[in-house]
Design goal:
Chain lengths: 399, 399, 399, 399
Amino acid sequence: MTERVVLAYSGGLDTSVAIGWIAEETGAEVVAVAIDCGQGGEDLDVIRKRALDCGAVEAVVADARDEFANEYCVPALQANALYMDRYPLVSALSRPLIVKHLADAARYHNATMVAHGCTGKGNDQVRFEAGLAALFPELKVLAPVRDSGMTRDKAIAFAAEKGLPIDVTKKSPYSIDQNLFGRAVETGFLEDIWNGPIEDVYDYTQNPAEERPADELVISFTAGVPTAIDGKELTPLQIIEELNRRAGAQGIGRIDMVEDRLVGIKSREIYEAPGAIALIAAHQELENVTVERELARFKRGVDQRWGELVYDGLWFSPLKKALEGFIVEANQAVTGDIRMVLHGGRAVVTGRRSEASLYDYELATYDTGDTYDQSLARGFIDIWSMPAKIASLRDHKLS
Amino acid sequence: MTERVVLAYSGGLDTSVAIGWIAEETGAEVVAVAIDCGQGGEDLDVIRKRALDCGAVEAVVADARDEFANEYCVPALQANALYMDRYPLVSALSRPLIVKHLADAARYHNATMVAHGCTGKGNDQVRFEAGLAALFPELKVLAPVRDSGMTRDKAIAFAAEKGLPIDVTKKSPYSIDQNLFGRAVETGFLEDIWNGPIEDVYDYTQNPAEERPADELVISFTAGVPTAIDGKELTPLQIIEELNRRAGAQGIGRIDMVEDRLVGIKSREIYEAPGAIALIAAHQELENVTVERELARFKRGVDQRWGELVYDGLWFSPLKKALEGFIVEANQAVTGDIRMVLHGGRAVVTGRRSEASLYDYELATYDTGDTYDQSLARGFIDIWSMPAKIASLRDHKLS
Amino acid sequence: MTERVVLAYSGGLDTSVAIGWIAEETGAEVVAVAIDCGQGGEDLDVIRKRALDCGAVEAVVADARDEFANEYCVPALQANALYMDRYPLVSALSRPLIVKHLADAARYHNATMVAHGCTGKGNDQVRFEAGLAALFPELKVLAPVRDSGMTRDKAIAFAAEKGLPIDVTKKSPYSIDQNLFGRAVETGFLEDIWNGPIEDVYDYTQNPAEERPADELVISFTAGVPTAIDGKELTPLQIIEELNRRAGAQGIGRIDMVEDRLVGIKSREIYEAPGAIALIAAHQELENVTVERELARFKRGVDQRWGELVYDGLWFSPLKKALEGFIVEANQAVTGDIRMVLHGGRAVVTGRRSEASLYDYELATYDTGDTYDQSLARGFIDIWSMPAKIASLRDHKLS
Amino acid sequence: MTERVVLAYSGGLDTSVAIGWIAEETGAEVVAVAIDCGQGGEDLDVIRKRALDCGAVEAVVADARDEFANEYCVPALQANALYMDRYPLVSALSRPLIVKHLADAARYHNATMVAHGCTGKGNDQVRFEAGLAALFPELKVLAPVRDSGMTRDKAIAFAAEKGLPIDVTKKSPYSIDQNLFGRAVETGFLEDIWNGPIEDVYDYTQNPAEERPADELVISFTAGVPTAIDGKELTPLQIIEELNRRAGAQGIGRIDMVEDRLVGIKSREIYEAPGAIALIAAHQELENVTVERELARFKRGVDQRWGELVYDGLWFSPLKKALEGFIVEANQAVTGDIRMVLHGGRAVVTGRRSEASLYDYELATYDTGDTYDQSLARGFIDIWSMPAKIASLRDHKLS
C-alpha cells in the first residue's frame, strides 16, 4: 500500500507546492489538513478544493475556532500569558491545536509521515515537531522548506511547471501569521531594529492616534473564563471576536519588540492582539480583586513559566499539565465584572465588582465605618522587621 | 538633659501639630526633619521656618533629589520594578531615603526617639519602622496618629488652641503622596472600586484623550542607568524630571488598581508616574536587545522579588542587597539608545540601537545574508522534545 | 447562657491548669478537646477523665491518626516537604488538624472562644490562630501562657491550690512535641548552639552508631501515596508506624539544626523523624524515575513554597490549595516500588522499578541495544549554546 | 602551514588513539592537552610522554588542582550545589576548567580545531562544546567517538596497527570519571535500575557499614570559603583533599540515583564525593546560623538554578555570572566554625559558632534572660493571617 503523508496545509504557495513536492520526493500520497483557527481569509471549501487541485488525495478542513478559543486561548488568559511580559503567544497557541488535528488525521488516514512548511530558524518548527513527538511519535516528519531545499523561487518554478492553480504574482512584502488571538508580522525593513513600523504593517488594529470616541464595556468572567460583554452571555470565541473588533478599532494591542526565540537568536517582531490584550488586562485586574496576596505573588512565576513552556513548544508536556493544576485552582474565584474604556490604543479598567471580591470597604476605608484595628500594627511591624534588624545589628557590630 | 525626638516633617497639618503634641506627650524636644525628594510644593526654607514656629528646637531640611534619583529610582529602574506588574513603588522608594536622613539626624542631635505621622493601616508605617529597626534600632518610635489618638479633628483643634501658623481651612478631598518618581492619590469616592477616577484627581499628567502632537525622543542608557535624552547628557534626576514633564504632557503613566497591602488588606489606588513608566518601558526593551535569554528569564523573578521586598518595607535587608548583586551584574551590558514616541497616554518604543546588542541581523534575517545554519534544527528539536515525548509514550502505554 | 471556651487539651500540666484558669478569668465553661495524632503516651480515656476532673464541662477526645496520616502526612510526602531542606514539618502538620477539630467542637458546643497553651515566641501560636482565623474567625482566642501570665510556677501553684489531679513533680528537662510524623525536642543546654545533643534527648530513634544488622524493605507507592511494604498492602498510618519502628531502630531521621522561626528569630531544634525521612527519600527517588525533567525542576520550587507556607501556619490558605493542584498532578505517575536499606542512620535506596518509569534502558545503555541517535547531538548543542555564545562574542568585542 | 588541533587528552586508550585518528582524518597536527584536576592516577610527565609517543606534535600538561579548587569547587560550595538535591556536579565542574585550558592552548599553538573524546549521549560533550562556543567560537570541534565512528573496538585495532604504547588488555568493566571533587561510575549491570551497587564500584569511600571509630573535626569558613580544619589554616585544595581522605574513610558521600541528563534521557549514576558532601553539609548549617531568613529562602532557588546551569554546560554564561553576583553577596557573612562528626557514612554537624551569628541566645531562650517581647505576637498573627482569613470568609459566603 502506498504510504501517506499528512500535510499542515494553509492554502498558500508554499504548502500548495509542498503537496506535489512531497509526493515526488517520497512517492507517498498527500493528505492536506487545513484548520480554521480564526485566521480569516479564504473559505475552507476554496482551500479544500485547491488542495485537491494541487494533487492531494484527501483534503481535510475543520472549523476549530471554538476549540481554539475554549481550549487554547482561555487557558492562556487564565495564565495572563505574555511571553517576555508582552507577547500573548498568538502563533504558539495555534500550533498545538493544528498538531492535534494532524495527529488525528494521520491516525484516521493511516499516515506514516507528517509534513509542515516551516523554516529551520523559527519557533514553529519546534512547536510542530515537539507536539507531534508527544502525540504521535511514530510519524516521520518532513519539512521541505527546511530540509529539502524548497525555497520560494523553487516553489514558484515548481508551481509554474506543474500548472498549479496558485497566483504567484501577489507578493506581499510581509511574512504574516494570524489567528483568532492575534497577528504576527515580519518584514525586511523591520529587521533593522532602529526602524519603526509603518501603518501599512497593521491589519487587526486601526491607528491609535486617530481621533474617535471612546468605547466603554463591561466584561464578565466566571472562574477566570470570559462569559459576557455588557451583560450579554457569549462564548469565548464570540467575546474574543467582539473585542478584536472593538479594541482593534481603538488601536489597542500593537506590540513591537525584540524577542528571544527558542532556537537561539533574537528577532524583531510586530504583533497585533487587540482582543487578547484587552482581555488579559481585564482578567489581571479581576485577579487583583479576587485572588489572595500570597497566591497572586506565586502565580506570577507560574504564569511566566506557563508562557515560556508554550512559547518553547512544550504544550503537550507534563509540566504544563501540572502548572494548569495550579492555574485552574487559582482561577476558581476569579468571577465578576470589569468595566473598561477602550480608547486611543489603551484598554483601561475603570471599575470592578464581584461577589468573590476580597476588597473589603470597611477594612480599607479611611472614613467612618473603618473596622481595621490599628493597634495590631506595632506587633506586626516589630516581628516582620526582626530578621533584617538582627542582621543589621550583626553587620554594624562586625564593620 | 532633655530627651530629643526626630520627627519626619512634611510641613502639613498633621506633622506640624505633631511637634507640639509629641512635646507635650513626652516632655522631649522635637527636631523636625524635612526631605525634598522631588515632591514639589513649598520651599524648604518656608517649611523649615514653619517647623520652628510650631515649636521645633531644630529644623533640618535637605534637598535629597539627586540622592533619591541615583540611589533609589535608578535601582528600581534596573529592576524594572512594578509591584503587581503595575505600580512603580513611588512612596515605597522615598521612605527608606527619609529613614536614612532621620537616622543621621537622630545620631547628630543625640535623639532617643523618632516620630512619623503614619496611620496604622498603611504600608508606610512599616517602611518607616522596619527601616529604622535596621539603621538605628535603639530609637523608640512614636506614631501619634496611630498610637495616641491624634485624629484630624483633634489636630485642627490643637492647632487652633496653640495658634499654630497653619491654614487648616483648605481641606483637600484627596490623600496625596508625591515625589520625583510619581504621585499617589486616595479619596473617599474611589473606595467604591466600581467608581472610575475623574480628571480632577490627576496632577502630574494631562488627559491622554486630548488631541495633541506626538513627542519623540531618544533615551540613552549606560549599564542600565539613564544618561542622556536626545544625545544630551543629563543626570538621572534631570532625566526623570524631563520625562515627567514630557510624558506627563502626553497623559502617560496613569494607574488605577486594586492593590495588596502588606498589612493584610486590599486597597484601591490611583497613581501617576509618567517619567517612571516611560523609563521602565525603555529600559525593558533595551534589556530585550542586550540581555541573554536565560538571564532575562530568571531576572523576571528576581525583579519581582525586589519589588515585593521594597514594597514590603525591607529596603535595608540582606536579601535586597543580594538581589542587587544579581541585578547590577545583569545590567552590565544594558547600554544603548531607545527611540520612543510619547503620545496619547502611550510610551511606545520604535527603535533601539546598541553596541552591546545581541540581536544579530545576519542570524535573524530571512533575506540574503542569512548565516543561520538551518540543518542544526532537527537535532535540537529531537533532543529538546525528548523528555516530554518519553513521558507521553509512558502515559499512552498506561492509559 | 454561660459562654463556652474550647481548649486545645494535651493532658499535661499547662493545659490542665488552663481549664480552671480560663474559667476563673472569663467566667466561661471550658470544653477540653484532645486529639490523638499519634503522639503516644496516655490513653485518651485517661486524658478525658483528667480534663473533667480538672473542671471541664465537656471533654472531647478523638483518635485522628488515620486522618492525620492521610490528609496531612501524605500531602507533605508528595511535596517532599523539608523546611530548610531538613525538617519534615512534624508539629506544623499536626496543628491544622487540631485546629480543625477545635473549630468543629466549637460549632458543636456553641463556643464563642478558643484557647491554646502556646507561648508568644514560637510558631505554634501562629499555626493555631491563623488556622482558626480561616476556619472560624468569629472565635475569640485566649492564650493564657502568652497573654495572661500563666507561667509554669504559677501553674504549679494553681494546681496545688485547687488540688488538681496532676503530678507536678516529674519535671522533664526537655520541652517536647511529638506525633506520628516525628518528635521535636528543645532544652536548655542545646540553646548553646556549640553544644552537641546527647543520647538522652532521643526517643523515636536508637543510636545509629551501635552495631546491628541492616534492614531491607520495599516500599510501594501509587500516585505518590505509600500503599505497601514488602508487598503487603497497608494504610499510610500503618506504613508510617512501621517505618518509625524499623527506621527508628536503625537510628534514621535524627536532625540537629538552627532554624528560622516565623516569629523573627533563629532557634536550635532537635528532631527525630525516622518514618518521615525514610519515606521522603523513597518518594524522591521514585520521582526521579517517573517525573519528567522540566516538571521535576519546577516542582522543587513548588515543594519549597508548600513547606514554607505550612511551616508559617498558612495551611488553610488559597496558595496552599493551588500548590496542591500542581503537586497532586505531578504525583499522578509516581507509582512503583523502591527498595531501601535501613542501616546505621542511613536510609539508602538500592533499587527502583515502575510501570510508569521514564528510564529507558535502550536509550540509556552504552551496551548493545543502544537506540539513542547520537547524530542529533551536534544540532542540539549548537542551538542550546547559541545565546551564551552570542553574548560571549559581544563581551569580547566590547572588552 | 599545517593546521593544528588541540585535543583534550586523558592518557587513556580513546584519546591516545584519537591523536593518530584525527591526524589521519584531518591531516592536521595534534597538540595534546592534559589537565590535572585531582583525578589521581599517572604522573603528568608519563602522560605527556605517551602523548608524544602516540604522535602529538606538542603535549601540554598542567597541574590545575588549586585553580580547580578555588575557582570551580568553592563557587559550587557557596551555592550548595547539588543537582537534583543530590549530585555535587563533579564532572560538570571540571569540564569548564579543561575547556579554559584548551582555549588557551589553542590560542598559544594557533590551532583552528579542538577535539574531545565524548560520546553523543552524555552531558560532557555539551559542556565541552558549549564552553568552547563561549571562549573560542571560531574553533571547529571534532568528536571522533561521536562523529567519525571511533568505537572501542576500532580504537583497539588502530592502536595495535600503529603499535601505540598503550596497554589495551586491562579492560575495566566500569566507565569512570573522577577528580578532586568526586568520582562517577557507570557500568552495565547498574543500567538495570533495580540492581543495587556492589562494594567493588567504590574507590574514594570505604564501606560505611564497617565498624570503626568516629572522626570529629572543626571546619572554619570565611565568607563561605573553607579556610581551616581544626584551627589549621589550609587552602581549599588541601581542605577538600583532607576531607576526601577522612570522610571517605567513614564511607561518606556515596550517591546512587536516577538522573535527568540534559540530552533528554534519564540515566543511572553512582557517585562518590566524600569531601564535597561533608563540606556542603557544613556550609549549609553555617548559612542557617548566619544568613537572614528571607535571603536564605530565596537563595535556595538561586542555588538550584546555578546547579542546573552548570550541569547543563552553561558555565560561561551571563546568567551564571549574575547568579554569582547574588551568591557571593549572600556568602559575605558566612564566617565561623562548624564542628562535625564523620562516622558510619554520615557527616553530622554537632556544633556551630560564629561572630556573624544571627542566632541570639537571649531572644531564643526559654530560660531566665529571655528578652523576646511576647506581647508583639498577637498583632503580628492577626495581620499575618488576615489575607487568608478574608479569603476564607469569602469562600464560606459563596459556598
